[in-house]
Amino acid sequence: DIIRHASILAQARHPRLEPAYAGYMSPRAKVLMVCTGNICRSPAMHYLAAREWAEAADVSSAGISAEVGMDATPEIRRSATAHGLTLPRHR
Questions:
Q1: pLDDT surpasses 80 at 78
Q2: Which in 8, 56, 57, 75 has the greatest CB count within 10 A?
Q3: pTM surpassing 0.70?
Q4: How does strand 20-21 pair with strand 24-25?
Q5: pLDDT at 43
C-alpha cells in the first residue's frame, strides 16, 4: 500500500539529509511532497518523511488542485495507523 512504499522512500538516506556531511553541519533540506489533492499521498508522505528525517529536513506538502477543507480519507488514515503513523487533520 502507499504507506509501505512511502516508508521505503522515506528511509532512503542521502548525504544532505544526514546531520553531519563532509565534516560540517549541512543546512536543513527543504522537501515538498506534491500530489493532486493533498489529501492522501502527499500528506502521508509529508508526515512519514518528517518523522524519518527529523531534524535533517523541513518537510511540507501541497496539491496541484487541492480543495480547501478536504481531509485525508478513512482508508489512508487506517493505512497510516497500521504503519505507526498519525495523520493530523490536514488542510
A1: yes
A2: 56
A3: no
A4: antiparallel
A5: 84
List, in order, residues 6 or more apart from 14 with CB less than 8 Å away.
Answer: 29
Q: Give the β-pairing of 57-63 and 24-25.
A: unpaired
DSSP string, the chain: -HHHHHHHHHT---GGGSSEETTEEPPPEEEEEEESSSSSHHHHHHHHHHHHHGGGEEEEEEETT--TT----HHHHHHHHHTT-------
| Cα 57 from Cα 9, distance rounded (Å) | 14
Q: Which residues contact 57 (CB under 8 A, 6 or more apart)?
A: 17, 28, 29, 30, 31, 49, 50
Question: 67 — phi, psi (to 5°)?
Answer: -105, 130
